[in-house]
Design brief:
Elements (H helix, E strand, L loop, with lengths): L2 H11 L9 E3 L17 E3 H11 L5 H8 L3 H12 L11 E3 L5 E3 L1 H17 L6 H8 L11 H13 L4 H8 L3 H15 L5 H17 L3 H6 L1 H8 L6 H24 L10 H28 L3
Antiparallel strand pairs: 1-2, 3-4
Length: 303
């Protein structure tokens, strides 16, 4: 008597009428509880029998195996999935299976197993950045004539633009892409400014040295992007655009400052207590704002 029969006998002895186990005789395939009449019956669970048939017939579909084993398709699928994840299983040993109608169809387990194996193989390989990929991330290396730096090359292009050349013709003459020329021009413009703070000046000079050394603009430009935004904002990044922004800024500040200075020449009329309180509150607020603004200007110049 095997273990499955002992289990059934124990359940029956305990009076568990509902604790029935579906068994199949391995000799004749009959379902029952030891009453098939075979000389040496060896009973196993129906699911185990389905697993045995599936293992012996890897090319049969789940439905075909289920019909032979007398179980539902889900039972076969479950056992095949369990077998496919075991350490000794060969996942996807066959790419096609034969169904009850005799037609062959793609094996979904084989496809999934192949995909998982590929992904596992990719994950196990260290990701090595190639020189080409690294160069693409840092931007192209720019050809610079002997005896000239990249910054000087870009200045040459800026002089061409001031003389009326289009940006496209300038880039074509320099042999530079749109991004490289734009980034390099920003670096040069910032390097020419005399209104940057000491920290920003040092950072821009370091970026210019990096650009000239590597003959690339992108790494150097990325290091001073915050300075670019602070100086140029979202406006034009040409010399003319930067000059207009400075002129507009100076005009606004000077008008405000002179307006404050003109307050001293005003004749103060008789004020009610309420009006007096309102004016003092607003003047104190304006004084604090002007002091904070002046501190920012001094900070920008390292004062």
């Amino acid at each position: 008597m095997n273990d499955t029969v002992r289990e059934l006998a124990a359940a029956a002895g305990a009076g568990l009428a509902d604790a029935k186990l579906q068994l199949v005789c391995q000799e004749c395939g009959a379902a029952g509880y030891g009453t098939c009449g075979c000389a040496n019956p060896v009973y196993v669970r129906a699911g185990q029998r389905a697993a045995q048939i599936a293992a012996a017939n890897p090319t049969l579909s789940n439905v075909a195996v289920a019909k032979l084993a007398g179980v539902d398709e889900a039972t076969v699928r479950r056992h095949r999935k369990k077998a496919s994840t075991s350490a000794n299983a060969e996942v996807g040993s066959t790419s096609k299976r034969t169904g009850r109608d005799g037609r062959q169809r793609r094996n979904p387990v084989s496809t999934a197993g192949t995909e998982k194996s590929r992904q596992a193989g990719d994950a196990s390989q260290p990701r090595k950045a190639t020189k080409a990929a690294a160069a693409q991330d840092n931007g192209p290396r720019i050809h610079v004539p002997e005896g000239q730096t990249l910054a000087e090359r870009i200045r040459e292009g800026m002089r061409m633009e001031e003389g009326g050349a289009t940006t496209r013709d300038t880039r074509k003459h320099l042999g530079m892409g749109e991004d490289s020329y734009r980034q390099g021009r920003v670096l040069v413009l910032l390097g020419d400014r005399n209104d940057l703070g000491a920290a920003d000046v040092a950072l821009v000079h370091k970026a210019l040295a990096l650009m000239n050394e590597e003959r690339r603009t992108r790494p150097a430009w990325l290091s001073i992007r915050h300075v670019e935004k602070k100086v140029f904002g979202k406006g034009q990044r040409s010399a003319a655009g930067a000059k207009r922004r400075v002129v507009d800024f100076m005009d606004g500040v000077i008008i405000t400052a002179r307006g404050c200075g003109d307050l001293a020449s005003l004749t103060i009329p008789h004020l009610s207590s309420e009006d007096y309180s309102t004016l003092i509150t607003e003047l104190n607020r304006a004084i604090r704002a002007l002091q904070a603004f002046a501190a920012e200007i001094k900070k920008g110049h390292g004062a």
